[in-house]
Design a protein that fits this description.
This protein has helices at about 15-30, 80-95, 115-125, 145-160, 220-230, 250-260, 275-280, 290-300, 315-325, 340-345, 360-375; strands at about 5-10, 35-40, 50-55, 60, 70, 100-105, 130-135, 160-165, 185-190, 210, 240-245, 265, 280-285, 300-305, 330. It is about 35% helix and about 15% strand. By secondary structure, it is of the alpha/beta class.
Length: about 375
C-alpha cells in the first residue's frame, strides 16, 4: 500500500515531470510514500522522486499538434494498445492501493487519455479513494467552449480538489479557464512550485546560459543563440553554456557538437542547472513554467522566447505578464535575428522583486497530508 499514487504523462516536454518531482519530494519529506504511474517514454535522466515507479506502455505525441499518439519509434497507436494500457493502469492502481490519487493535468489537459483515466477515476471512486488534480497556473485556451465545459463536468463529477500551482496575486485559474466559477469550491491555489533557491554563488555572475527545456522543441532558439554570441557587445568573449535537453534530436545534437565555436559548451542536460543559472549573467530560454520559476528563484536576468506553435498560448500569456512586471525580456521567434537577440541579451537586467508565492510544493504536500489524515 502507498499513500499517494501519482499519474504523470509527458508527451513533448518534461516540465510536468520536474514540477511533480518537486511535489513528490515535499510529500516524502512529510512521511508520505509515493508511487508514480508514468506513461511517457522512459529516460534515465528523469527523476520522479518516487518510492516506486510503475512504467506503463510508453507513448509520446507525433508532433507539436498533439493530434496523434505514437510509440518510441514513431509508430501510431490504436485501440488495441489503448485497451492494454488501460488495463496496465488499473492493475497499477490495484497494486499500489493508494490512500489518495493525484492526476497531473487531467481533465484540464491530456484529454487524449480519457480512455484510461475515466476508468481509473471510476475505480478510485469505487474504492473510496479521493482524487486530486495537480494543474499549472495557466491552461492552453480552447476555441471550442464545449471542451471547456467537458473539463468542468468531469472535474465536478470526480474530483475532490483542484490544486492550481499558481498565485492569484499574479493571475487566478479563471484567467485561462472560463468555467472556473463553476468549480470554485474545488480550487485551491497552492502558490508556484519552485525549487529552493540555490546557495549564493561566490563571486560575480558570468557567461550566458541557453536552455531549451526538455529539448523536443527549441532547436531554432539554440541555433539563434549560438549565432548571436559574436554580435554581443558584453558577452562575446564570455563562456556560453547551451543545454539542449534530454529529448533534443540526436542528429541535431551531433551536428551542433561538431560545429561549435570556441567558448561555447554544449550539454545534453545539467544536474546543477539551477546553480548554473544562479551564477550566469543572463539566461536565454523558452518560457516554460519551470524555467520561469528558476528565474524567479535565482533572480537571473532573463531573455525568453515562448513556445507558441499550433495555438499554444500558455507560455506566451505568462511571459507577457512577467515582461510587463519587469521580470524578463520577452521576444517573439518570428522575425528574430541573431543581432536582435544579442542586443536583448546585452540589455537584460536583474528581475525586480515580486510578491509571488513560490512555496507551492510544500503547500501541496501539506494539503495532501491533511486530506489523507482526514480520510483516516
Amino acid at each position: 500500500m502507498t499513500d499517494v499514487m501519482v499519474y504523470v504523462q509527458h508527451l513533448l516536454g518534461i516540465g510536468h515531470v520536474r514540477r511533480m518531482a518537486l511535489i513528490n519530494r515535499a510529500m516524502q519529506s512529510r512521511g508520505l510514500s509515493v508511487t508514480v504511474a508514468s506513461g511517457g517514454i522512459p529516460d534515465d535522466g528523469l527523476d520522479f522522486a518516487a518510492d516506486e515507479v510503475a512504467q506503463l506502455s510508453p507513448c509520446k505525441t507525433a508532433d507539436t499538434s498533439f493530434s496523434e499518439l505514437v510509440d518510441a519509434d514513431g509508430t501510431p497507436l490504436g485501440d488495441e494498445w489503448k485497451e492494454a494500457r488501460k488495463q496496465e493502469l488499473l492493475r497499477a492502481f490495484e497494486q499500489a492501493s493508494p490512500k489518495l490519487l493525484m492526476i497531473e493535468m487531467f481533465p484540464f489537459g491530456r484529454r487524449a487519455f480519457r480512455f484510461e483515466l475515466i476508468p481509473l477515476f471510476e475505480a478510485a471512486r469505487a474504492s473510496g479513494v479521493p482524487i486530486v488534480c495537480s494543474v499549472r497556473d495557466l491552461l492552453v485556451r480552447k476555441k471550442d467552449i464545449k471542451k471547456t465545459q467537458w473539463m468542468r463536468d468531469i472535474a465536478r463529477k470526480y474530483l475532490d480538489a483542484v490544486l492550481v500551482h499558481g498565485d492569484p496575486n499574479l493571475f487566478d485559474f479563471g484567467h485561462s479557464f472560463e468555467c472556473a466559477n463553476d468549480i470554485a469550491d474545488l480550487i485551491i491555489h497552492t502558490g508556484y512550485v519552485a525549487p529552493d533557491a540555490p546557495l549564493d554563488v561566490i563571486g560575480e555572475r558570468s557567461g550566458v546560459l541557453v536552455s531549451a527545456g526538455g529539448g523536443a522543441v527549441g532547436a531554432e532558439l539554440i541555433d539563434l543563440a549560438i549565432a548571436a554570441r559574436p554580435f554581443s557587445k558584453q558577452y562575446s568573449d564570455a563562456p556560453w553554456n547551451i543545454v539542449a535537453g534530454p529529448h533534443f534530436p540526436d542528429d541535431k545534437f551531433a551536428r551542433l557538437a561538431k560545429n561549435l565555436p570556441d567558448g561555447i559548451v554544449l550539454h545534453r542536460f545539467l544536474s546543477d542547472f539551477r546553480e548554473r543559472m544562479a551564477g550566469a549573467s543572463v539566461s536565454v530560454s523558452q518560457a516554460g513554467y519551470n524555467t520561469l520559476m528558476d528565474v524567479l528563484a535565482t533572480r537571473t536576468p532573463a531573455v525568453m522566447v515562448p513556445f507558441a506553435e499550433r495555438g499554444e498560448s500558455e507560455q506566451t500569456e505568462r511571459a507577457e505578464i512577467l515582461s510587463k512586471e519587469g521580470v524578463i525580456s520577452l521576444l517573439d521567434l518570428d522575425g528574430l535575428s541573431a543581432q536582435s537577440l544579442a542586443k536583448q541579451i546585452d540589455s537584460a537586467t536583474q528581475p525586480r522583486d515580486m510578491n509571488v508565492d513560490l512555496d507551492g510544493a510544500t503547500k501541496t504536500a501539506l494539503i495532501i497530508a491533511d486530506m489523507i489524515k482526514g480520510r483516516a
